[in-house]
Amino acid sequence: MNTVSERQIPLLDLKAQHAMIRDEVIPAIMRVVDSQQFILGNEVNQLELEIAAYSSTNYAVGCASGTDALLLALMALDIRPGDEVLTVPFTFFATAGAICTLGAKPVFVDIEPATFNMDMNRVEDALKANPRVRAVIPVHLFGACADMDALETLTRSRGIRVIEDAAQSIGAEYKGRRAGSIGDIGCFSFYPTKNLGGYGDGGMVTTNDKSLSDRLKALRIHGRTGEYLHRWIGINSRLDALQAAVLRVKFRHLDSWSARRQENADSYRRLLSRAEVPVFAPQPAAYQTRHIYNQFVIRCANRDGLQAHLRERGIGSEIYYPLCLHQQECFAWLGYHAGDFPVSEKAASEVLALPVNPEVSAEDIEYVCESIVAHYRR
Ligand SMILES: Cc1ncc(COP(=O)(O)O)c(C=O)c1O
């Protein structure tokens, strides 16, 4: 018989986080309400400056979501029907969805087993086989960067642009360089589950290129370049001042929260390496010099059984992602088949995200690890 655990360790505890910052957030929200300035404006400008500095880029442009950040980045690089964009099949839907929204075609390349990120050893062959590829979107999945140097070598000589999908990786570093500052454009999400999450949707695009920044700023307001003057056809994707005000409060805590996540990840690794269980904890590659652990994702045998066992013990977990993008119904027209990306497909059958958020205590992690051991010993 299943018992319901007294103890609850949710995958993410946003209520606990809000309780901690409530006294800072409410006045910030009221400041915007009293100003009645809800769209773009000072709060958004200030946040853009803060995120640009944090990401070591010259420019940052706020927008309505991480999905729109990708869309705007592709639009700014003039990706259009007939173009192809290389990315991975093991990611959140939006990475490939944004490509298709513009009538372009995603071309997938498999991931590395150790990092879950784009396998750069496969990119050259993919570019040779798909000469219409005009841009590559490496995804910095779960909080750690893809191998960007290898990609730069392959793309620069061919004039192919690079958009970093850094939705899950604000503050992550690749060989000491910040996510979002390495490619032509970086895309961030402020979805509430992110390390820097708003009280609703939000996103941001970063770049070092002034002309791209100008274009992105126009594209988010219907391509407007002057009073009732539209040089391009853009979209409506503005960041709300309310979100920017909340994000500016949370931004002050971001580094300490990411540090807590790193400590939690270290504790998991230490405890799981001692336990004799068929579970593999992520080990960052040498080039991933700062992992911000938006998710702590293990690979495990009998994943569904383990997840059910953890649930009985009050422990939240999640599968990111149970089905690769090339196997989604809406991408059948791309012509891929099961087995085409074996590393991604294996990951989809083995991964499980464990609670790593800053509110999780050392005792919680011991309990999660004991529960994992108990599952495999029964
Ligand atoms: C890798 C990745 N790309 C893009 C997105 C899209 O961001 P949003 O949900 O803010 O639209 C997400 C967010 O969930 C993501 O994880």
Describe the structure.
It is built from twelve helices and 14 strands. With 378 residues, it is α/β, with parallel strands linked by helices. Strands 1-9-8-5-4-2-3 form a seven-stranded mixed sheet, sandwiched between helices. The radius of gyration is 21 Å and the shape is globular. Bound molecules: pyridoxal-5'-phosphate. Pyridoxal-5'-phosphate (PLP) binds at residues 65-67, 91-92, 94-95, 139, 165, 167-168, 189, 191, 201, 203. Pyridoxal-5'-phosphate binds at residues 65-67, 91-92, 94-95, 139, 165, 167-168, 189, 191, 201, 203.
Topology, element by element:
Elements (H helix, E strand, L loop, with lengths): L13 H22 L6 H13 L4 E5 L2 H11 L7 E4 L6 H8 L3 E4 L14 H7 L3 E4 L11 H9 L4 E5 L7 E2 L2 E2 L6 E5 L13 E5 L2 H10 L4 E3 L2 E2 L10 H11 L2 H21 L4 E2 L15 E5 L2 H10 L29 H9 E4 L7 H16 L1
Parallel strand pairs: 2-3, 2-4, 4-5, 5-8
Antiparallel strand pairs: 1-9, 6-7, 8-9, 10-11, 12-13, 13-14
Helix pairs in contact: 1-8, 2-8, 3-4, 3-7, 9-12, 10-12
The structure holds pyridoxal-5'-phosphate (PLP).
